[in-house]
Amino acid sequence: MNLPPLFAAWRQALRAGYDAHALRGDVIAGLTVGIIAIPLAMALAIAVGVAPQQGLYTVLIAAPLIALMGGSRFNVSGPTAAFVVILLPITQQFGIGGLLLCTMLAGLILIALGLLRAGKLIAFVPYPVTLGFTAGIGIVIATLQLKDMLGLTIAEQPQHYVEQLIQLVRALPSVQPGDALVAMICLTVLIVWPRLVPKVPGHLVALVVGALAGMALESSNLAVATLGERFSYMVDGVSQPGIPPFLPDFAWPWLLPGADGKPLMLSFELFRQLLAPAFAIAMLGAIESLLCAVVTDGMTGSSHDPNAELLGQGIGNLIAPLFGGITATAAIARSATNVRAGAFSPLAAIIHAGVVLVAILWLAPLFSYLPMAALGALLLMVAWNMSEAPHVLRTLRIAPRSDVLVLLTCLILTVLFDMVLAVGVGLLLAAGLFIKRMSELTDTTSLRSAQNQLLQDLPEHVAAYAIRGPLFFGAAEKALSVLRRFNPEVKIVIVDISGVPTLDMTALAALENVLLDYRKQDVALILCGSNARIRLKLRRAGIHLLEGQLYYVRDLAQARAKALRLLPASAPTSAVS
């Protein structure tokens, strides 16, 4: 088996002609996206229940690895909002060690998908399923941000959405005016700034304004919770506020604390429990990364290698957890910004990781002053954008009822339960509805003599039918059961299957049952119009060996002639292939 090519995106960029102009575009794009990535990476890490620096480590390690190995020239990878719904419960149940180990398992699954060339299969995920769970994720993320935006005091974060809502309502009396004001200011900047100055990232401006507003409110004796108050790190046994201004250390995930604060114990049971969420992470990562690649291809006129992209995503998610990085995938918003800023090659994504490196080493102390409410407002805007509310409303208005059912099912299950269940049920429901639609395309009609000149002079002892559409498990029994309902005096049945493109084992079994009934009634069957593939399947099933009962002919003219030859004998005596 040929392996997906490594460095596929780099090869494509070099073939397109890399020059000084392309380098300048990569540098500008990398700087622009890097500035946007810093606050988002920290905010998303906090949202999944880990320290903010782990989001920065994800960008620092996973982003350049994926850019180097992947299959898209313009994808920019890192923590994304889509994973919050999956990763937060893992952190709550298994701790940071379990989260990083689960990410490594997801990386292995992505590598396997790339090696198996499954990149094209992701395109078969129905749009209502994708839209449903992304909208549901947006709702959950938005709800989770209310705690920090309003400064609410909540002792413990529940795992289920309804319980989270109840906790938020109960905690409303603890609203902090300072936090609420900072959140409102940041939201206003995030909404208004892109319309006024679209070339300057609104995320950066909102956080700067939020930090200044927070300090002003603190001086007015209005408390504003900051990142430095919430998070700290240890240096020589001394606790320091904020995030550490140094690079991450290598550590095996199973040696890191679990939910109980003790190192994880590797066991088959632990892998069994982590396998389902790891598969969900891998599938969501594959869907989002390849969808992102399609979007950037549409913006640039380029093309990506889906299998190489899966391989790159897998390698990034396999290596990043060894240095404290959480789950990474390509982000549509950052990748689109990368394209608009003039990126030409994966070098832009590598430079964006370099910007994060500079921020860790030299700007880490300043991050301590970032208000938690500002980060919450930033994620609230991210949640709104990813929910695609206008698209959801439009789909609910114009889509077929079955697609609306799939969308609402995925959305509700994502919100009330989890995304693993939502995607599984959504895919099953979509598959079931697709099978139903396909089965409706298959029917069996009677070919009466008045409708076909070739059959005009055939006596009443001959019945003729035509089957149109695929004969598969969803339609075979319904289509073939019609062949059993005819006048008892009929001794020959002609069936035109020229409109049957394919049939499966269920259809073969149903056809065998029809032939058994015909044998009991001394009825012969003439099949006409079958293509080579259909005849091969019938031959492999042994159906062509039913002597004296089954005949194959090319078309209705031959079927008519065959029926006329058989009629004088009242029953067929030999089979003709």
UniProtKB/TrEMBL annotation:
Pfam families (alphabetical): STAS, Sulfate_transp
Domain STAS: start-end pairs: 452-563
Transmembrane segments: 27-48, 55-74, 94-116, 123-144, 180-197, 204-224, 274-295, 343-362, 369-386, 406-435
Localization, UniProt: Membrane
Stated name of the protein: Transporter
Gene Ontology, cellular component aspect: membrane
UniProtKB keywords: Membrane, Transmembrane, Transmembrane helix
Organism per entry: Stutzerimonas stutzeri (Pseudomonas stutzeri)
Topology with respect to the bilayer: Multi-pass membrane protein
PROSITE patterns: STAS
Gene Ontology process terms (BP): transmembrane transport
Domain of life: Bacteria
